[in-house]
């Protein structure tokens, strides 16, 4: 039987590399999937692609800004209206900023924290009644290796990713009595469309990036988004019933 047969899953950042790969894998494994993303055009393209490749996929795309607190209520209401339950929540939405902390603006802090951290807290809060009712509810929060290995120049992003780890563990402790498991995955260097666009001005193609040797991790390569989707799938499934308050590093052995 598929690992998520009959389950309903919400995935934020559903039009991005890891979110899209996770949505497709979840659909393959029998889940009914709600994809949330602010980029309507990309969301429609991802949803159409999954529907074309996965026979019988049940998908609900929601073009919404998770940086707004009220969006969490809308996502949960739309999901329950369409599918009647919530079994899995994957908080994956994220934005970036390249400001050193001595130049960091209040508005940038607000944007980063609203999307990369507070949206996780708000959506978890709103989904918890349904997740508890599921009996086997699971939350998977997507953090980053940089929660533990911060860099110069991306302090706001890395601080938010570190906050996700604390949020994950605290929520796991609070919800264990309600049957809801809460875990986190920390991706390392992952070949998402964001990075493909980022390196295009340097003359690098996606194929170049797939075959180049990198020094960021001991495997010497970029991860494919689907390789990150697999540990997310496992944590979301009943196979990981003993896993809560855990953090999985999906990073090819990131060098410290």
Sequence-ordered SSE layout with sheet pairings:
Layout (H helix, E strand, L loop, with lengths): L7 E5 L4 H12 L3 E6 L2 H14 L5 E5 L5 H15 L4 E4 L14 H29 L3 E5 L12 H21 L5 E7 L5 H7 L6 H6 L13 H12 L10 E4 L6
Parallel strand pairs: 1-2, 1-4, 2-3, 4-5, 5-6, 6-7
Helix pairs in contact: 1-8, 3-4, 4-5
Describe this structure in words.
This protein has one domain: Rossmann fold. The mean pLDDT is 97. Helix 3 (69-83) runs parallel beside helix 4 (106-134). A 7-stranded parallel sheet has the order 3-2-1-4-5-6-7, with helices on both faces. It has 8 helices and 7 strands; from the N terminus they run βαβαβαβαβαβαααβ. Helix content is 45%, strand content 14%. It has helices at 17-28, 40-53, 69-83, 106-134, 155-175, 193-199, 206-211, 225-236; strands at 8-12, 32-37, 59-63, 88-91, 138-142, 181-187, 247-250. It has 256 residues and is α/β, with parallel strands linked by helices.
Beta-strand fraction estimate: 5-15%
Structural class: alpha/beta
Widest sheet, order of strands: 3-2-1-4-5-6-7
The helix content is 40-55%
> What distance lies between the first and last C-alpha atoms, to the nearest angstrom?
40 Å
CATH architectural name: 3-Layer(aba) Sandwich
Total beta-strand segments: 7
General shape: globular
The major sheet is characterized as: 7 strands, parallel
Superfamily (CATH H level) name: NAD(P)-binding Rossmann-like Domain
- Please write the CATH class name: Alpha Beta
Total helical segments? 8
Count the domains.
1
Can you give the mean pLDDT?
Answer: 97
* Low-confidence region ranges: none
Order of helices and strands: EHEHEHEHEHEHHHE
- By CATH, the topology is Rossmann fold
**Rg, Cα atoms, Å:** 17 Å
């Amino acid at each position: 039987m598929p690992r998520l047969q009959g389950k309903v899953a919400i995935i934020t950042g559903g039009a991005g590399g890891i979110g899209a790969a996770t949505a497709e894998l979840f659909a393959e494994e029998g889940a009914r999937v709600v994809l949330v993303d602010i980029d309507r055009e990309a969301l429609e393209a991802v949803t159409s692609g999954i529907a074309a490749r996965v026979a019988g996929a049940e998908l609900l795309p929601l073009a919404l800004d998770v940086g707004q607190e009220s969006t969490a209520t809308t996502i949960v209401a739309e999901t329950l209206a369409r599918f009647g339950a919530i079994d899995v929540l994957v908080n994956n939405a994220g934005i970036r900023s390249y400001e050193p902390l001595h130049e960091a603006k209040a508005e940038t802090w607000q944007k980063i924290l609203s999307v990369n951290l507070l949206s996780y807290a708000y959506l978890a809060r709103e989904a918890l009644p349904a997740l508890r009712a599921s009996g086997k509810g699971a939350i998977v929060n997507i953090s980053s290796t940089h929660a533990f290995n911060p860099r110069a120049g991306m302090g706001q992003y890395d601080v938010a990713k570190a906050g996700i780890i604390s949020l994950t563990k605290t929520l796991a402790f609070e919800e264990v009595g309600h049957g809801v498991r809460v875990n986190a995955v920390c991706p390392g260097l992952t070949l998402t469309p964001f990075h493909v666009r980022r390196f295009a001005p340097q003359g690098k193609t996606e194929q170049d990036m797939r075959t180049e040797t990198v020094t960021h991790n001991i495997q010497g390569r970029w991860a494919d988004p689907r390789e990150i989707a697999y540990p997310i799938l496992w944590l979301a499934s009943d196979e990981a019933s003993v896993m809560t308050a855990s953090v999985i590093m999906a990073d090819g052995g990131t060098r410290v």
